[in-house]
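Lab notes, practical 5.
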Amino acid sequence: MAASSRNIWSDDPDVIEERLISLSQEKVPIILAQKGCEGQAVYLQKIHREGSFTTLLFRKTKKVSYGKETCFFLYRLAEHPPQIFKGVPLLDKEDSLAITKPAVIFERSRRKYPRISTSAKSEALYLVPFSSRLCKGQPKDISREGLCMLASYSAFLKRGLRVGPIELILHCHSAAIEPIKIHIPEATVVRVVRMENNRAEIALNFKLDRKNANNVESYLELREMELQSAADRKRKSGT
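Output from the prediction step:
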């Protein structure tokens, strides 16, 4: 499991209110996760105030029911690390879910750059030197500084070779979560393992600009939550 830490981004009620209004007005997709339940994208539809009590109403994109345990809400704004808040469902309907206004919003940061497995639906498109042909690979796992993918074997693919640009389309298991696109200008081959059927496992290292690094961070967070939820469901079912 990926190693990450939470730092308090804000516990100021006015700052939190301003951020929530922005999430609602800009229709920012928010990933809802609860242990043992399937994650999904939700949208903050309404902020209801009654005296000192504020309720948040989210529109669901999938018909998933949630218990009375703590839910986690993860979102990402451009040029910012992922942020997260939590709440216990007050009302859970087929197409909506309500919680009280959070008292704290956290910012997630990683203490190191571990790899995490990608969904099998993910894709990689890349160019190799000495060829103008666009090659296609299947990412196996990714970190903020590295990628391992399966692709067709080529004699040109040797340790130290620079490959690029690479365009990644990273999917989560849930179809309700939009795929995340990553642009890698250039990567260095660090390992090539030839396999059967003229296939190869290729390990790459790279450096990313801030925007694409944040996109990778967001994907790592989403996949971490998905994998944790899947493990919780498996334990509950006893399989």
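Observations recorded by the TA: The radius of gyration is 20 Å. The CA atoms of residues 35 and 228 lie 7 Å apart.
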